[in-house]
Amino acid sequence: MTQRIATTAAMFSVLGAAALVLTGCASEPASPQAQATSAQADAPQGQPRGQVPACADGQLNFNAEPITNSAGTTLGFKLNYWVVGASGACSLTGYPGVTAVTGGPQVDAVRKPRGALSGGLPQGQDTPPTVVLDRDHGAQAVVETTVIARQSAACPTYTEFLTTPPNTTDTRKVSVTAQGCEYAVYPVYSWSR
User: Fold this and answer.
1) So what's the pLDDT on residue 30?
2) Does the predicted model carry a pTM greater than 0.90?
3) How far is CA 27 from CA 10, 20, 38, in A?
4) Beta strands in 13-170 (DSSP E)
5) How far from chain centre, in Å, is Cα 127?
6) Any idea what DSSP says for residue 9?
């Protein structure tokens, strides 16, 4: 009888352990390595595991919105980038191309890591981050004008700018009014839509 109880107890012990393994029950959360392996398994086919593909031409919508100070003076504008409809997640890294085209002579924005307005990289950091865009998250970049009081009358007022998201060739016009003789553009950063 003792042997039968021991055999039955061993069988329940093995079955219980198997049930825990099959149902995924555990007393501790999955390790970071297990979570990374799971995330890598969900990566799009044909892409390096753990990475989101770069945004492709035609995969993004974009527009511009002015940045004004408390007196209502336009100091620059934000470029907003987001994925088109059901398009999958993609990533942007670096600086958009920006050219002032309507309102004065054509002027290319100079790429700078940081400036006076919000946007740009923190002090001590010079490598732009990679920003992942999906249905709920986009990317923004700040474009700053160099207008100062003494030269404002001499600087033209532009109403359209050509912009190209980082690492793409998808150039489009955006409408925003900004007076300036020179412009600076800062790297893209994450934006919750």
Assistant:
1) 34
2) no
3) 22, 10, 19
4) 60-68, 74-83, 90-93, 97-102, 107-108, 110-111, 130-133, 137-145, 157-164
5) 14
6) H
